[in-house]
Amino acid sequence: MSTAPIKIPKSESQHSRLVKCTIEACHLAKEAAGAAAEGIATGSVQLLSSLRQREKELDNLDREIDAGVTANITQVSDTEARELLACMKFMIGLERIGDLLLSFASSAQAANSGLDPEDTRDLTHMATILEKMLTDVGEAFSSRDVRKAINVLRADGEMDRLRNLIFMRHIENPENVHRTAGLQVIVMTQSLGRAGDHAKNLAEEVCRFGSGHTVRPVMMTYDTPIEQLVMDWLRHRDERG
Fold it and tell me: Can you tell me the distance from the alpha carbon of 141 to that of 129, in angstroms, rounded to the nearest whole number?
């Protein structure tokens, strides 16, 4: 009979668990945006209704991360403390995105079949962009990938363009077309636009906690190729480092 000691794996640290919870929240928010896109494109009540459950799950993760960070922030290294603060900031933004997508779903259900094809197309496009932004921001957070974060920052411009296009169509209404679901469309557009703003803020947070610097000055140059943006930002970080 062997007398070799049995190796018992160490339990997962609270810090690691909270980081994993944050990544899970990113995935949930991404799934919610995907359900919103498909739900509005197909008119699926089931998909739109599923956003309520995802919003509840994000709320639960928000409470768990808030309590966990509060209890552990003074018991970890400085680097881990910064990551825990980033987790809390991420969760605040993701929870708000969940709320905004639930508002989007409620307005979509209220509009029922009253959406114009143009609105359906543009809202689907906005929700699809948001899904990609949340995919990239989750990967940027989990792997500290600055390139993914910059993708998110650049995508926000297309969200703004679509939002302005829809607003012009409904508020200025240059063609003087009667639209039965105008109010719901405005609310849905605002919800997606604000969700995109939160996703952009999360991407900026990745850059801040990963390097201590911001990429705002870099992103002001929209004509610069994204590869050059990354190289310029990394060079600027190293020079200041």
Answer: 18
